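Let's study a protein:

___
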Amino acid sequence: MPAPLIPSLFVSHGAPLFALDAGSTGPALQAWAQAQAPAQALRGIVLVSPHWMARQPAVMSNPQPATWHDFGGFPAALYQLQYPAPGSPALAGEVLGLLAEAGIAARPDEQRPFDHGAWVPLMHLYPQAQVPVVQVALPVGDGPRELFAMGQALAPLRAQGVLLVGSGSMTHNLAEFFGGAREPAPYVIEFSRWVESAIERGDREALLGYRELAPHAKRAHPSEDHFLPLFFALGAAGWGGAAPVRAEYLSREVMYGMLAMDAVALH
């Protein structure tokens, strides 16, 4: 009997303060992990974050990655947090092999630490930090189709006890971060729900062309880096193909008026 497929996951990691200010999204992530992908059922986690971008595709092969506080100007308590999950050179080797089979030449990186796009959401998903984690760099210059293909290449890992995660943000206009708004900006809701509708319809071409088709796309994402991990998760799920994929929304929270914290599991 084939092993059950682990869902792929897209999470919005928000501002670094999400590590301390969990809102409603943090508990939702933890509850989902306990119910749908418990730590004891996982061999590892493979995660793409926009806070590691590389000219050439790269895969973390560090056996014990450090927790990198790659930000400034936040409360001192944030810099005390550690996420001591192990890496996995063996799993990194599998990732490199699958990417090579798909024609994606990647290199191992034995020094890479966890950036906050990885450890902040993982603190909510797996607070005990016991599951090995391997990060994959987001290649500079790649777009939605390339990230989708990367997810497709790694999809076989879902049947081998590996959780594939795209960590980004459903909206990410930092120029508006310090506006002091507490109510969600209308454009944030309109963009996020357009994306949700496209996911539910399985409309691959609409979502791949979101930059021209989605309402307020360029305001929601002045640059694409925080949206691209969604396509990694969608590709890993085989979304938009012949087989149906169920989208389970874990959060639709909006923080600071402009950061949509959408999280969605793809079964």
User: Anything to note?
Assistant: The domain at 8-266 is CATH 3.40.830.10 (Protocatechuate 4,5-dioxygenase; Chain B). Residues 10 and 223 are 18 Å apart (CA to CA). The first helix runs from residue 25 to 36.
